[in-house]
Amino acid sequence: MPLIRIFAALVICSLAFSQSLMAKEIVIKFSHVTTEKTPKGKAAKYLQELVAQRLKGKVRIDVYPNSQLYNDKEVLKALLLNDVQMAAPSLSKFGKFTKKWGLFDLPFLFKDDNAVACFTNGPKGQALLNAANNKGLQGLGYWLNGMKQLSANKPLIVPDDAKGEKFRIMSSDVLEAQFKAVNANPQKMSFSEVYNALSTGVIDGQENTWSNIRTKKFFEVQSDFTESNHGVLEYILVTSTEFWNSLPKDIQTELAAIIKEATLKETQWALEAAQADKEFIIASGRTKIHTLTNDQAALWATAMKPVWKQFEGNVGKDNIDAVIQCGQ
Ligand code: LMR
User: Fold this and answer.
1) In the structure, what pLDDT confidence band is assigned to residue 154 with cuts at 50, 70 and 90?
2) Atom of ligand 1 nearest to the CA of 32
3) Is the pLDDT score of 200 beyond 70?
4) Residue 31 lies in a domain
5) Which of 8, 113, 140, 142 has the fewest C-beta atoms lying within 10 Å of its C-beta?
6) Distance, CA of 323 to CA of 87 (rounded, Å)
């Protein structure tokens, strides 16, 4: 065969190969730990639907809820290995990647959901999305769950009531310090183990949002809840920097726009769930819910707030101040 023909055949082959590569659908595995009925679960499915509509044939998202694939500790390793490409763990679970996100665990710092939105939408919050870039993680957006409540098998009305009680916490040194500040005994544990640990008495109490308390049935195995609103449970939608940077520019831009849309919906669902799930738990009659007086709430805040100073160097005083400016 003349050389020119061989050359032409090679060019055609390589063009076809690169076209088939270009046309290959990008699959994003999204693993998370809550049920599909939670704000995070619904938003993950919504993200999947929007991508199916707007990036059809180019990108597909497969969602794995309820710790089906990984718990939150494992999923961060899996992201870096490109075994999954998206997750939305609580910001409390990234201590090995950045100390900055410990900000979200400081007790009584975020006054309410509005203060969270004010900070995360502001310049400091947006800059913090990049805090774990040097460890290979890229934050894509903040997803809300809501304010946390305390529970145990006894009323927790003043800080002394927590003394000696074993509380499950997420894997956060800030949360550990928060419970130590009221002389309680914090135990780091993954989310999927909490229900069993509560029902068998391995732990005495926990802190979480109304949404997680309802969907994981914690209210069935705790006699008393305190509407403490002492901290926030906030997620970060996260991917690996390597995966994110590997996406073609047009796809990255469209995906970022879709994520913005899903994030707005997620916030709305979180606000609705906080109210509806609390009402569901009250109506169940399975547990008691205590509301604190202003004086009682102030006692918890006074006992826990020294934790701010302890972690100021890690999370940044400028970030603490920016949250305070959002309302105290
Ligand atoms: C927890 O571990 O309590 C939460 O982070 C679970 C979740 O994702 O809401």
Assistant:
1) very high
2) 8
3) yes
4) no
5) 8
6) 25
Number of folded domains in the chain?
1
Q: What percentage of the chain's residues is helix, strand, coil (to nearest 5)?
A: 55, 20, 30
* Mean pLDDT (the chain, rounded): 94
Q: Which domain does 102 fall in, by range?
A: 91-326
Ligand 1 atom, smallest distance to 93 CA:
5
Whole-model pTM over 0.85: yes
Residue 210 domain-assigned (yes or no) = yes
DSSP string computed for 254-315: HHHHHHHHHHHHHHHHHHHHHHHHHHHHHHHTSSEEEE--HHHHHHHHHHHTHHHHHHHHHH
| Ligand 1 pocket test, candidate residues 233, 238, 277, most atoms within 8 A of CB | 233
Ligand 1 center to 191 CA (angstroms): 6
What is the arithmetic mean of pLDDT over 131-136?
Answer: 98
Indicate which CATH number applies to the domain containing 150.
3.40.190.170
Is residue 112 situated within a structural domain?
yes
Residue 72 lies in a domain: no
- Determine the pLDDT at residue 4: 55
Residue 33 alpha carbon to ligand 1 centre in Å = 7
pLDDT at 5: 60
Please tell me the predicted confidence (pLDDT) of residue 67: 97
Q: What is the pLDDT of residue 99?
A: 98
